[in-house]
Queue: 3 jobs
Job 1
Amino acid sequence: MSSPPENADENADEETQNREIPTHIISTEILSETQNRGIPTDVILTEILPRLPANSLLRLKWVCKEWQLFISSTKFIINHALHPNSLSSRSVLFIDPYTSLTAFDFGDSGNVRIIKFGRYSTTNPIFLIGSCNGLVLLICSHAQTGLVLSPSFLLNYGFDYRVYNPVLQLDIVIPQPLGFVLRSDHFAAQDCSFGFGSVSTHDCLEFFIVAVNIRMGNVAVFESSTRRWVIMHTLRRNLPILFQDAWYVHSGTLVNEALHWGVTVGMNLRCIAVFDLVSRRRIKFMKLPYAYFGEPDCPDIVRSAFSLCRINDRLCAWAYYNGGYVVDMWMLKEYDVWESWTRLFCYDLRCEYWNFFGLTKAREVMMFHFNWLVLIDFSRVPLVSRPLYFGHQVTAVNYVQSLVSPYTVFLYGEQNG
């Protein structure tokens, strides 16, 4: 078995959404009391409330009309979505074989919270692609449940995209682009992939759905502000590239307003394909921490040589060794600076894990297996792990709650403050 190199170091309506809410109508008594205690009103409205999870804010929406108008205002929604260090910023969203969605908040490892959002569909197979600023991208197969025996067959039946906010229980349907054929010629569907992300300013959010047919060299991008698809040719056709992971295992990893995929070019060149959502011009390539990152590719349709993830908002890459049990994890501490790749850990985990997420306050790493989440403290010898059992899940993605409405963003254009 190969091993890592020893010297490789380290449904608010549109009118409500756009109303400005005077601060004096929001819990005047509470604001007065807190002001007497030295907390300015603007700190409460712009710093404290935006840190609360969306479901906590929604629990109070029927207390008074003014509160509902306030949390439904575009200004507050944008501030809440873009506010750093939200209490729910360390969260993972899962989907099970019956399309039930569940979120786990793990920032405080001593108080892991479970939020059940319920079942999304009872008639069609649903696949979870990604999440960004509280919105979730799902793929809904046109086949009936039970007909898609393997996710790799999904593209043969046709599908559409669903943008969904689990907290608001709102979704919209985005059809496939006309003339963009997305059928896989690869037995594991590793020549096609997807991504979901957004670009933000201080008062604006714009979302993008991305579909990639890497063999054809084409990328299709749906822009929320224009509500239309743009198809661009970004790579030479029939370039010998394959995604390291099938799209239903890992889709594009969103970091720094760009989507990232692990790819193999030709027989041996392993690297990271990057599609920048700001420029949206072409796919470029980034280097991995070292050459021959991970074990050589094999005809195993489940496991790849390496994969990508996002840990605490930084791009990470991990290589598999010893049949997938040994994980060599690296973090790109300064984006697009190769010298900043830093090894986080390299351990035999004694089973395969399919994704890694953020760190808790106690510096434990959250990891995903089909039947459990596990928090592992890599600073202790031997390793200390705490599994959280929850039954079989299909996919897991990084997630943060928000009040962003897919209706507002995708039907009325970008959500502006």
Job 2
Amino acid sequence: MNTIDITNSLEKDKLVNTEQSQLTDTQLHHGTSYVSHFEPHASKKPNSTEIKISAQDAHVYYGDFEAIKGIDLDIYQNEVIAFIGPSGCGKSTFLRTLNRMNDTIDGCRVTGKITLDNKNIYDPNLDVVLLRAQVGMVFQKPNPFPKSIFDNVAYGPKLHGLARDKYDLEEIVENSLRKAGLWEEVKDRLNQPGTGLSGGQQQRLCIARTIAVSPEVILMDEPCSALDPIATA
């Protein structure tokens, strides 16, 4: 796994060495917010030479405030990347640019170019629903749908026509819950509301919901912060 460290330094052009990456970090302090400009250089070769996601001079603005400043980054097929840094430095903001979740925030705009499989994801003709099936996301706080446990996981496969029949759908739901480590805890109450689960169970339900559509990329925004200790053993 390559680690990209977004540090809290206010020094410009400071070189930071980590075990598996190097980056040039420039941060400007604006009140309580930070603007980060980083350029990662992986010291280990990726598992694939195929670039899955590429960001070229990516900037993110909230109104006139520039939250992300000029990111250039290539992420390869099957590569695992971790962004680390202090609260407010732009980790979540950048993750949300990769499946256009920032589209739902008033006043947020993205400039530069971000591609998935060499296709511009900010092309106005792009199917955003399909993009979010290809690039799934698990958030820091669990957000299950106000539906049953079964329907939470089945929603995506039904929306995208991934199940041939109800038996196929049931298999997808079970396999997804097993992969998320939740099946044994909920298999006898699949018709109960997902919102009735504990916080850690809800987060695992959201993970199952994400992997049910077999996304090509999964974005995880501190997902383990909401997991029960037993779920991380």
Job 3
Amino acid sequence: MPTMGLIRFLSAATDLELTDKGGADVRELVSRILAETIPQRPLPLEETATILQSLLNSGTVLPDKQLRHLLSWVAPNRPSHFSHLQLTSLRQFVLFVLAQAEETQRASLLRMPVEMQTFVSAVLCNRMPNVRPGIPEATRQFRSQVTEMVVDDPDVVLGVQLGPGGYLDLKVGNTAWLLDGPEAFLRPFTQPLDYIAQEKRRLWLLERLLCDEGTRRSVADFFPGALQWPLLGSVNRLSWQQWEQTTPAARPQLLGHVLRSPPGGPIASPSLLPIASGGQVGRQPTVAE
């Protein structure tokens, strides 16, 4: 099979979760792809980003030799040379490696050449925001209704940005929430709903970044702003279907929180929340504009 065909096959197989859980299938496919390339003719950035996304979706960490080979294709480039989507895929893959529970895997980037480590740090610290997928109308209405319900509660923070780590739809006390529309699930819809591979990995990554202190320190080696991310108890998800099937009176209970208004009435101005973006503290509104 031609190299580009192997890449397309890898992408489709990991999107549909057809590879083995241990990652042997993915590593074998990547090994065959790497064997077809030479340093003088690396794969284009688009195809490299596709491989990185496939590794992320399948939860596969490459051996050091393969990881060094793959990064050698992208490390000579500046972050500005990547498209918005390519940069997001690269960041998420790097964070995925740094978030591994096994110390040997988590430290693999520290064993890369210095120029590759410098490149990784530059990618994470670049201020370009991550790509957010298009939002269908059902998701937009769902999130708007949740916002309307919680907007005056001083314990709720809306739209928390985490720089290269992505975003949270809301934070209620010590718990983060992701508000998921139809685009987050495999079709046809099943009961219970089944998340697409990318969304499963997104939840895993946010849990590691925001609920594990060791992961934060690992990421901080390349992105110091990680130490300013909130340390949370959990990251939960709420689907548009759960919301629609719940009566308006019972919906606050879905967030596991008793909503309240601040003394003196609704919130009228934004406050500061120390969420890092590009290594800096970011200004985060407590209400949607």
